[in-house]
Design brief:
The complex is a heterodimer of chains A (231) and B (219). With 231 residues, chain A is α/β, with parallel strands linked by helices. Helix content of chain A is 20%, strand content 26%. Chain A contains 6 helices and 11 strands. In chain A, the strands form 2 sheets. In chain A, strands 1, 2, 3, 4, 8, 9, 10 and 11 form an 8-stranded mixed β-sheet that branches. Chain A has a 3-stranded antiparallel β-sheet with strand order 5-7-6. Chain A is globular, with a radius of gyration of 18 Å. With 219 residues, chain B is α/β, with parallel strands linked by helices. Chain B has one domain: Glutaconate Coenzyme A-transferase (3-Layer(aba) Sandwich), CATH 3.40.1080.10. Helices cover 17% and strands 28% of the residues of chain B. Chain B has helices spanning 3-14, 29-32, 86-94, 130-136, 197-202, and strands at residues 22-25, 44-47, 51-55, 76-83, 100-103, 107-109, 114-115, 140-143, 155-156, 171-173, 177-182, 185-191, 208-216. Chain B has a 10-stranded mixed β-sheet. A 3-stranded mixed β-sheet of chain B has the order 7-6-9, with no helix packed on it. In chain B, helix 5 (197-202) links the parallel strand 12 (185-191) and strand 13 (208-216). Chain B starts with a helix and ends with a strand. Classes of the chains: A alpha/beta (231), B alpha/beta (219). At the A-B interface, helix 4, helix 5 and helix 6 of A face strand 4, helix 3 and helix 4 of B.
């Protein structure tokens, strides 16, 4: 089996206007930046993007926002992003804010074939407005529905041609769960390794979830240092 | 609020961290508390970015671009650290596995309702993890200034800002006082040195009962 597509452009060529795409990342970590750049170059529009953050002015999803390619975001925390603020203020971007844990679990439900779940998070707040609520054993819960997407953009540290993936440190974040919840999961890997060279016990995302593997051409800023372990 | 006062709140908040605790610290004053964990207390910091067992970088270390805390700041791992996904991070948080979460606050009221994510007239940047943390940790402590920058009380009969969680707060720590949320309302447990009970009551909109064993805040 060989899921490798060497060319980024070719790997995303079938993404059409109006598509829903999940994109991994937490702050500056684990952003599928090469796939996002390729999507900027392709110019696909009217996108719905499901992601924890919205990138910065010049990194990740921020680039798509600046290009006016995004119609709607389902997001937890956008941080400080001037492009984002301007688009929202001018009514050019629809936003659905979701508590971070609820976002992760909605994606998990989407990937795991569940019809939804009840969470205590957000009960009695704006986040629970117009949602069914129930109580069990004296505790209140809110019904949250699953999320799926046409495509998922994943960033992995290593991957093999079978689509098995390993992540590194907090660059793991939403990547493994998003890999499970899309019709077509595309993984950009920092390092493409030979089939059989990853330890099966240490694979985070089994290849069954991954349709395409692309070597990431460019892995950004700032330079990697080995994690410091303090005594 | 002076730097000195913020540090006083953080120092007192650090006393909430007990041996063996798994702890999540929110940004701002709560994060400062990590510097003042009492000697001999071994606790593990947990972040929703997907790491448990971390601390600040040595000042010369540039950090690892794949390793940040929830405020996106580069951190160092401590011995015994482990790394995990967002799904696992929130299973820990919602599932009641965190012993303690210290968060900042805009408002707290006498039923333990918390508002700390949205201010009117300001651009909303999102909810992040704070709603999950507020309802999931075994104990939620709010570390915040006693009044707003406009000198209005933040401890109220009823929160007026959009809520983060309903009845979630156990304790509030400010530069003036330590106040517990109980089924009978708010109880004043400690006052800052050289601060009178009357002054705390004046700066607090909610009613306060004074603990029989009222103490002076030790930091």
């Amino acid at each position: 089996m060989n899921k490798v597509i060497p060319d980024l452009k070719q790997a995303i060529a079938d993404i059409q206007d109006g598509a829903t795409i999940m994109m991994g990342g937490f702050g500056p970590c684990g952003i599928p930046e090469n796939l996002i750049q390729a999507l900027c170059d392709q110019g696909t529009r009217q996108l719905t993007v499901i992601s924890n953050n919205a990138g910065t002015e010049d990194l990740g999803i921020g680039l798509l926002l600046r290009n006016h390619q995004v119609k709607k975001m389902i997001v937890s925390d956008v941080g400080q992003n001037r492009t984002f603020e301007e688009l929202v203020r001018h009514g050019k971007l629809q936003i659905e804010f979701c508590p971070q844990g609820t976002l992760a679990e909605r994606i998990r439900a989407g990937g795991a074939g569940l019809g939804g779940f009840y969470t205590p998070t957000g009960f009695g707040t704006i986040a629970a407005e117009n949602k069914e609520a129930r109580a069990w054993n004296g505790r209140h819960y809110v019904l949250e529905l699953p999320l799926r997407a046409h495509f998922a953009f994943i960033k992995a540290r290593k991957g093999d041609p079978f689509g098995n993936l390993m992540y590194r440190a907090t660059a793991r974040n939403f990547n493994p769960v998003m890999a499970t919840a899309a019709d077509v999961t595309i993984a950009e890997v920092e390092e493409l390794v030979e089939t059989g060279s990853l330890n099966p016990d240490e694979i985070h995302t089994p290849g069954i979830y991954v349709r395409r593997v692309v070597p990431g051409a460019h892995n950004a800023k700032p330079p990697r240092a080995e994690p410091e372990v303090r005594k | 609020m002076s730097k000195h006062q913020r540090e006083l709140i953080a120092r007192r908040a650090a006393w909430e961290i007990q041996n063996g605790f798994y702890v999540n610290l929110g940004p701002g004053i709560p994060a400062l508390a990590a510097r003042f964990v009492p000697e001999g207390v071994e606790a593990v910091l947990v972040s929703e970015s997907g790491v448990q067992g971390f601390g600040p970088l040595h000042h010369k270390h540039k950090g690892d671009r794949d390793l940040v805390d929830a405020a996106n700041e580069p951190v160092a791992l401590t011995p015994g650290a482990s790394l995990f996904s967002s799904v696992d991070a929130y299973a820990m948080i919602r599932g009641g596995h965190l012993d303690l979460c210290i968060v900042g606050g805009f408002q707290v009221d006498e039923r333990g309702n918390l508002a700390n994510w949205m201010l009117p007239g300001r651009m909303v940047h999102g909810i992040g993890g704070v709603m999950d943390l507020a309802c999931g940790a075994k104990r939620v402590v709010v570390a915040m200034e006693h009044r707003t920058p406009a000198k209005k009380p933040k401890i109220l009969r009823n929160c007026t800002l959009p809520l983060t969680g309903l009845g979630v707060v156990h304790r509030v720590i400010t530069e003036l006082a330590v106040i517990d949320v109980t089924p009978q309302g708010l109880v004043l447990r400690e006052v800052a040195a050289e601060v009178s009970v009357d002054e705390v009551c004046r700066e607090t909109e909610a009613g306060l009962r004074v603990d029989k064993d009222l103490k002076i805040i030790q930091v």
